[in-house]
Description:
The chain is an alpha/beta fold. Helices cover 34% and strands 20% of the residues. Strands 5-4-3-6-7 form a five-stranded mixed β-sheet, with helices on both faces. Helix 4 links the parallel strand 6 and strand 7.
Amino acid sequence: MGLWSRKNDKEFPAFWVEYLAFFDKKQQKTPIEKTRFIAFDTETTGFDYIDDRVLSIGAVAVNNTSIDVGDQLELYLEQDVFNSDTVEIHGIRKSNNLDTISESEAIEIFIKYIGNSILIAHHANFDRNMINKVLQRNGLGTLKNKFLDTGVLFSKTKHLVYRSNRKHMHYSLDELCDDLKISKSDRHTASGDAFITAIAFLKIMSKLKINKTDRVSILF
């Protein structure tokens, strides 16, 4: 994990100390058009936070209220735990030609990439918990970034608030794609779902009529 440093009398890798430093000071409210958002997704061997592992991480930035295709990340992790049932969904196999890296390498790259950006995910608690377990297995803490969940934001759009035939708020990413007219051609890959989540975020923002003079804080 590179050079080690100290934080509150504990030794941590330098990248983690640098990450924590972003959150030492109270963050100022920033206009949305000047805020870096990161839409990301994890593909995993299953849904158990303890026993399952992250197979891949895909992420793309939203800068100045548009998707920045030049600012993205795609990582494939070496797999010690493998659930063959998940192959049907995302097609990532234990033995394939993908370039993989260790879990510790992947989490360092991811943390350096996100910095103090606001993170966007669909059903965000799952992805956040999976990343936090990776951090904990590597002797680190938990994510400090603010999170936005596109499922929760989607439920706030006016045309859904008054839709009487919906009795729950657990909208799937497929439902968002159908309602927001987003192509599902690259579903069930981490990078594909991250890109779809970014598109959904921007479309939801438009429906919520959040303009460039508003502050990020109104989303939380």
